[in-house]
Structures are given as structure tokens and as C-alpha cells.
Amino acid sequence: MIEFNGVSKYYQGRAAVDTLSLNCPQGAFMVLLGTSGSGKSTTLKMINQLIKHDAGQIRFAGRDITDIDPRQLRQRIGYAIQSVGLFPHWSVARNIATVPTLLGWPKQKINARVDELLHLLGLEPALFRERYPHQLSGGQQQRVGVARALAADPQVLLMDEPFGALDPVTRTAMQQEIRRIHQMQGRTIVLVTHDVDEALRLADRVVLLDGGKVIQQGTPHELLSQPASPFVRAFFGSHEPGVRLLSLQTVAQRMRREVRYSGESVPHDLTLREALSRFVEFGVTTLGVTDAAGQPCGVLHFNDLVEAP
Asked: What is the value of pTM for the model shown?
């Protein structure tokens, strides 16, 4: 879907991105991870030609992006950023409808799409359609920003530190929403972050950058369990790889199918890392597990967290 082959970008003779090669298959959730100045955002912005690359080749859906008109390319790519950038004097509905309106969609189709996205992101259309950005919380603004990026049903969604300004609770909720959208729609997503836990929570493929170069890329499990260098090991935390590995699996993957249980319970889609915190919080060695409908569906045993699956 997206391929970088030996791509470089220079500023005043210095390489911000240096002979970078990577591949993001269709339907993947790829996270570009690294410290400030590692080349993450530059890499992301080169995909939709907000920044032009100086060397190498970038291909989108099999075509060299230099052969695609930038406006047509951006119509196929949604873009969400940390600052959201909503138009302050436009309603929520009008903000979301920005790109479909530019594309000349019929009004009825636009209205239906706005309502569909508001529902998808947990915002009741009757309550939020006619509100203005200043009437929304930070988390609600971010949801509207994501809805706007998705409005024209793009093939790819690019996200540049989209949740960095949110409080921890709202940030976690938005991460869950984006993961849910990815699972429901199979959309290709490329997200930039410097947050290790966010990357592990969301990605099925991680690209770790430093100094504009790819240091290692692969699944979260591969980077945690098979670090390619001391830098990778240190970046992910040399003293807590085991705990972080727990964040890659859910309770449903380790629970036992025992339905009879009385005591504290956790949802089936909780990560094992979060479940570990619940074990400590409640001072127990077993936790009941509930399904999406809140019904008992199993039991998680503390010992099963430390034993190989």
C-alpha cells in the first residue's frame, strides 16, 4: 500500500530522513516511533506530499507519488493532527463535511456521512451536529478531527501525535476508538508517536526511528522480545520487557472458560498488563471475566500471567 525505497529528505544539507526503506501493507496499523527529531513526522508528511522527498521513491497503491497530483493524492488520504485544527466559526457538521463538500458530494450524502461518523465516534448527532468547537471538550474536538479525516472514506489515515494534548483518561478512550475503527473497517493507518505504550497498544507493525534512520521494524512482540541492538532494548525499557509484553495480549486470550465466579471482574478486552494492576489493586489471585454484554464468560488466574500461553 505504502512503500519507501531509499528515501531521504535534507534540510540545509542535513538528513532529516536518511535512505529510509519501509513497507506498510494494505489494512495495516503501522506506528512510526521515536524521540523528537528522529524523522517520524517528516516521514509521515512525505506520504501525502505535504513535504517533498529529495531522494528515493515513495509508492502509494503501486504508483510513484510523484506521478499523482497532490490534490488527488490527499483526497485518498485522511490526515489528523494533535492540534486538530477545526474551523472555529463552523459547526461540527460543517467541519466534518469539509472534504466531501470540496469533492461535490450531494447534500443528502454528506449529511448521512456526518451522522454515521458521529455515531461511530460516540457523539450523538442530535446533540453535537450544530455545536461549535469552543463548546466541545478536548477529547470531543479530537473525535471531530478524526471524523473529518475519515469523512471522504479515504484509503489511508495518517495521524501525527493525535492524542498528545489529551488527559490520560481521554487519551486511552481515543486510542480504543481508533483501534476499534481499524478493526471494524480494516483501514490502513499510519500513526506517529513518541509514546512506547501507545505504540504497543495500537500497532500491528512498529517502525523505530532514530536520526532519520530505521533502527528496527516489525511486530510489537518482535521488537520487545528480539531487540536488534542495545538502543532498541533501552528504548523499550531494559528492565520491563516482560510487563510490556503483557500489553500485547487481552484477558480473553488467557482466561479459563469457567463461568461460575463471585468476586471482582474485568472486561474481556482488557490488556493483561492492565489486569495485572487489577490483581494488585484488589489483592486477589483470580478475576472474573465479562464479555461485551457484561455477562460472565470466564476466569483469569494470576498464575496464567506468568506462564507461557
From this structure: 0.82
